[in-house]
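Quick one, tokens below:
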């Protein structure tokens, strides 16, 4: 599976996330911080995703270091892309087309 395409021009959300991630984790993220940032429940789950080529951002090795690493910029762009595809719609989540709460309708 090819690596996912990340947009070349990051959104404002991505830029804000990049600044925050870089402050908290540094420009290069690895180990448990990378696992958490990608939402994997454990290092073992992250390793399995690597084996299956299912990690959603480009990862790389650093000579003389163990483990895999990713750039905070790539993580931020991925997070912003995930945020842009919400599974819920806050403006219509609590009512139907007629403006009544969904629970009240029977």
């Amino acid at each position: 599976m090819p690596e996912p395409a990340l947009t070349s021009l990051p959104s404002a959300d991505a830029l804000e996330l990049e600044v925050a991630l870089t402050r908290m984790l540094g420009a290069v993220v690895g180990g448990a911080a990378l696992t958490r940032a990608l939402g994997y429940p454990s290092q073992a789950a992250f390793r399995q995703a690597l084996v299956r080529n299912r990690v959603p951002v480009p990862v790389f090795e650093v000579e003389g270091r163990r483990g895999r690493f990713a750039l905070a910029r790539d993580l931020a762009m991925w997070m912003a892309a995930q945020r842009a595809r919400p599974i819920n719609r806050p403006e219509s989540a609590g009512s139907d087309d007629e403006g009544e709460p969904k629970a009240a309708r029977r």
